[in-house]
Amino acid sequence: xxxxxxxxxxxxxxxxxxxxxxxxxxxxxxxxxxxxxxxxxxxxxxxxxxxxxxxxxxxxxxxxxxxxxxxxxxxxxxxxxxxxxxxxxxxxxxxxxxxxxxxxxxxxxxxxxxxxxxxxxxxxxxxxxxxxxxxxxxxxxxxxxxxxxxxxxxxxxxxxxxxxxxxxxxxxxxxxxxxxxxxxxxxxxxxxxxxxxxxxxxxxxxxxxxxxxxxxxxxxxxxxxxxxxxxxxxxxxxxxxxxxxxxxxxxxxxxxxxxxxxxxxxxxxxxxxxxxxxxxxxxxxxxxxxxxxxxxxxxxxxxxxxxxxxxxxxxxxxxxxxxxxxxxxxxxxxxxxxxxxxxxxxxxxxxxxxxxxxxxxxxxxxxxxxxxxxxxxxxxxxxxxxxxxxxxxxxxxxxxxxxxxxxxxxxxxxxxxxxxxxxxxxxxxxxxxxxxxxxxxxxxxxxxxxxxxxxxxxxxxxxxxxxxxxxxxxxxxxxxx
Length: 481
Ligand code: F0G
What we know:
This protein is an alpha/beta fold. The protein has helices spanning 30-39, 67-73, 84-97, 108-119, 133-141, 169-179, 202-215, 226-236, 245-254, 279-292, 303-315, 319-338, 356-359, 369-381, 420-435, 453-456, 465-476, and strands spanning 2-5, 11-14, 54-55, 101-105, 125-128, 145-148, 186-189, 219-222, 258-262, 272-276, 351-355, 383-384, 386-388, 408-412, 443-447, 458-461. The strands form 6 sheets. The protein has a 5-stranded mixed β-sheet with strand order 4-10-9-8-7, sandwiched between helices. Strands 11-14-13 form a 3-stranded antiparallel β-sheet. Strands 1-2 form a two-stranded antiparallel sheet. Helix 7 (202-215) links the parallel strand 7 (186-189) and strand 8. Helix 2 runs antiparallel to helix 11 (303-315), helix 4 (108-119) packs across helix 10 and helix 8 (226-236) packs across helix 12. The protein is globular, with a radius of gyration of 22 Å. The two termini are 32 Å apart. Ligand F0G binds at residues 58, 60, 107-109, 132, 134, 189, 193, 222, 224-225, 262, 264, 272. Residues 58, 60, 107-109, 132, 134, 189, 193, 222, 224-225, 262, 264, 272 line the site of ligand F0G.
């Protein structure tokens, strides 16, 4: 991605790719959208994609593939055992991570499942910069718990801290002193998802690694969002600014012991895997892969996907490729800020994150601000975002509601998918909603699942605010779109 300046001084991220295949989209009317979100229980996961105009739910498995990825899929060596596609993927991973072993799995959470089975036992504590939903769920299923110790700036939606994804080294040291043998490993997440795709610095990874070594525990890195994080290391960290992306990637990997990833993000295809050097951990994981995922040379992935991931991972070394997402996100964040819309800053990776608590400051925690905002934005735009707040939490062990530290509406920008005019449309409708925010009311539980509530839980409006919002929209946009 190149950044260019127009004659009027405007800075524009410029796509360094062209569109070769397109999918038709439909923009339903506001009345149709109102019905659709009611049926979905105000949970954007439960919307049908046919009712969605711009799908900003996630960047998972929906990134645009390159022509070279598509071409590689045709070369897939389809077989149960010993596929060339596997060895090509393994070779590519060796180049970027330089670890002795690669074990495949069908997606990121499958890696978390297997790693938790091998490494987590009852009473264990896993310190981390921040959790991801499936990570926490798998650790808890094993009877362990997580200890989130990000730097203080991490949870401030607006900040000028360039590495909000860093772990607090002083708190980590204290955790080692307090919990000792109950800590089986430390987990870091590159491009920390739930706090707004915020990066971790290479310096912080190195310091964490040194501490882990001192206490004799492995350091695990979730590299699902490493692509964006590598961009930020190069742009924001002095020691990285003159280095090639592949060298930064190698340096990251050299400072961690266990790597796992969702290839639905890292590699822009669908799959996952784990890379490590430790013989003992490898042997234990190796027993589980065929049991839960598939044979060791596919792990639940299709050979075609393995080919696409291999090329996708190679393309991570291309600065034009990895800068597209962060630059589009930066544009969206900055334009929204100009209009006074509260957004997470600095702009991170993955997507644009709207601070729902500040946006809907007239609502209370129990109104599920982020869910209300995601429902309202869908009604007024057909854009599907994702609630990243209290719905994504689990209740406390005593049954009380666990209110999220930050309530975000995540508007993911899957890589190379949206055009600038679509981004401008999104900015326009979010801004309209902000001006009319007093019309947005709260939601309450209608159907509440026990775990991973955000996937299939249903909410209902506390009154008829959604109808009033739709009426105001129709008044301002009489053609109904
Ligand atoms: N780790 C991180 C940092 C993730 O963002 C995800 C998925 C996973 C692990 C799990 O990987 O989906 O392949 O099983 N994040 C998706 C999202 C679901 O929408 O943010 P998976």
